[in-house]
Specification:
This protein has about 325 residues and is α/β, with parallel strands linked by helices. It has one domain: Aldolase class I (TIM Barrel). Helices cover about 40% and strands about 15% of the residues. The chain has eleven helices and twelve strands. The strands form two sheets. Strands 1, 2, 3, 4, 5, 8, 9, 10, 11 and 12 form a ten-stranded mixed sheet that branches. Strands 6-7 form a two-stranded antiparallel sheet. A hairpin with a 2-residue loop joins strand 6 and strand 7. The protein is globular and about 75 Å long. The N and C termini lie far apart (about 45 Å).
Length: about 325
Amino acid sequence: MPSFPATRLRRLRRTSALRDLVRETDLSPADLVQPLFVVAGEGVREEVHSMPDVRRFSISELVGEAGEVQAAGIRAVLLFGIPAGKDDTGSGAYDDEGIVQMAVRALKDAHPGLLVVTDVCLCEYTSHGHCGFVRDGEVDNDITLELLAKTAISHAEAGADAVAPSDMMDGRVAAIRHQLDEEGHPNTPIIAYSAKYASALYGPFRVAAESTPEFGDRRGYQMDPANAAEAVREAELDLDEGADMLMVKPALPYLDVIRRVKDATRAPLAAYQVSGEYSMLKAAAGNGWIDERAAALEALTSIRRAGADVVISYYAKEAAGWLA
């Protein structure tokens, strides 16, 4: 018998065609969602200094950008709004003439085949920067549910294809599902930010969305980064309440959580490669420390490999070009 093993795994790594033939995880533009920021004004294409190559758009410019995203093969966008003014109750979030509501109508008129998902939260709209109604220095869970449901209804009535509550209030999926059904939107899906961690990687987003908390932090409602079993409980509760798709956020530091949630629920699962993940790659590439294309595609593939059916990423449009 030969001393060397008969099985040589390198045989199937020898050429690009062989590697493609046995690849276990695919990454395509159809798997990706592009987040977009919309602001008030005309002709605005404003650079976000904390997120290289990411911009905030006024509605007309947003429509043009969404067309480019769709042309690149991306089928869905996730919309965040930055209102002209803020108040204690975040009333701009559920204003039928609010920035997101107007943007949804414009996007659906211009690009009816593009899937428009809206972030449902109050943090961009409140003067204090928290994700809900604040009473005595704390976010009041149950009052916030009413405002979130109003927000989801206003988005659905504007034409949003799906709503994505990101607030991490207990019971918000049930509240939103009930209100959508009651007000004539039973077919509007809910993409629940089920396991949203109190991460240090949201900083660049908070600059873009102007949503840094004025006091305290969000640890009282977002998840402890040390917990994984709790993420499964959150996901299962959201499914019981009527969620159509689950989400884990952030992605790369929580690949184990993505896998655990996917294995436990077998439900459609999204993962959000957040602003800090994106900006770290951009910064390293800008300094010449990494090959940006190779590193970004490796990161996106790893998220898919962990179990995510959908990856929300600021790299989506750029990655689609690399994958073409």
